[in-house]
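Technical note accompanying the year-one report. For the benefit of new consortium partners, we illustrate the data format agreed upon in the data management plan: each record pairs a sequence with a structure-token string. No post-processing was applied to the example shown here.
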Amino acid sequence: CAVLPVDLPAASCAPVLPALPALASLAAVRQVVPARSAAGIKWINDVVVDGAKVGGVLTALRTRAGRIETVFLGIGLNVATTPTSAAATGTLPAADLSAAARRAVDLGEVVPLVLAALAERTQELTTAGPAALLADYRAASAVVGRRVTVQPEEGPSVSGRVTGIGDDLALLLAAGPPVRGGRLLSLDD
């Protein structure tokens, strides 16, 4: 968990804040696993390597008078063990960084990498705004171009081919309105 004191405009930054811990975790993962591994982000908050989930992130914030003053981050990475619970893995098989790296990886190696990436991305967000964060999140997407089924927080499930990621991290589907929240139930080619 991390608590970041910030002073950011809520209107432009709040919609993309889930990208902050996801990209920081992804940066750490990419430093640990071999370069030939396909590491990315499964919408909206899972970190994947070669199609398997190695972690997930949660983001919450506190605002006052239209400004974000505190960001709360929960970051979970499977470092040395792979969870077996379906609730922990969701729609993807699970993996751990040690298996993905093909060597022993420990928390002492990963935590400094995540914290350094968080500091760098937070500084970038503070000085330059959310554009680079959003661009990097889009580039790291493991769902763009793929067919998905999402269970929104309310209403029936929605399926379609993902054509992009919106400025608020919404899934843009080939047909239908943007999907702004929910649980990704399936991911197909």
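Partners are asked to follow this layout when depositing records. The chain has a mean pLDDT of 93.
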